[in-house]
Each structure stands twice: as C-alpha cells, then as structure tokens.
Design goal:
Elements (H helix, E strand, L loop, with lengths): L9 H26 L7 E6 L4 E5 L9 E3 L2 E6 L4 E7 L7 H9 L7
Antiparallel strand pairs: 1-2, 1-5, 3-4, 4-5
Length: about 110
Amino acid sequence: MGRKNGSEPPGRCRRARLGLLAAAGVGAEAIPVWRRGYGLGGNVIVRCRRGHLFTTIWIPGASVKSLRLGWWRLQRCPVGPHWSLVTPVRPSELSEHERQEAALHRDIRLP
C-alpha cells in the first residue's frame, strides 16, 4: 500500500483528472455564453421553439429541471405549456415589453 518513488496513489490522480475534465466542460459552456453577452447563472431569459419567452435558472454545467443537449436544453415551457428545446436570449435584443413578458412567465422554482 506504500507509494513507489513518491508517486501519487492511483485513485487521487484519477480524481484530479476527472475534476479537470469537469471544469473544462463547464468552461466550454460558460465562456462562449458569457462572451456572447448572455447571463451566466441565475435567472436568464430563454426562448422555446414556439417563440415563447420566459425566465429560467441557467447554470453552466448543471441542470436540474432540464435535459442538457449542448447549447440547448429540453425543458417545460410555462407559457405553452409544452416541452421544448430552449436557448438563452440576449436581453439587449428584446423590447422592453418582451423583457416584461418574460419576467411574468417563470418556470418552476427549485425548493
């Protein structure tokens, strides 16, 4: 059970690699989202495939209420109501009326 030549135990090295891989995955989603001007984490305005706008919690690298499919998420639209792919929307591209409508329609909140 001792270490050979001061090397790390095999489990620790594997965990470190998995941690770096997970961090790279989160960064691969978060950095492009941030650079394109979308919000990161917290409440984000999204649009479903039918054009409905609503707010949802969008945390890069995590999804509790949706199925992540790369840039898209399969999630229940509270406006429809229906299941749809949703994508983030830049608030700057929306009119004041559209931003207010999105704020009125929120998906389910986490406890």
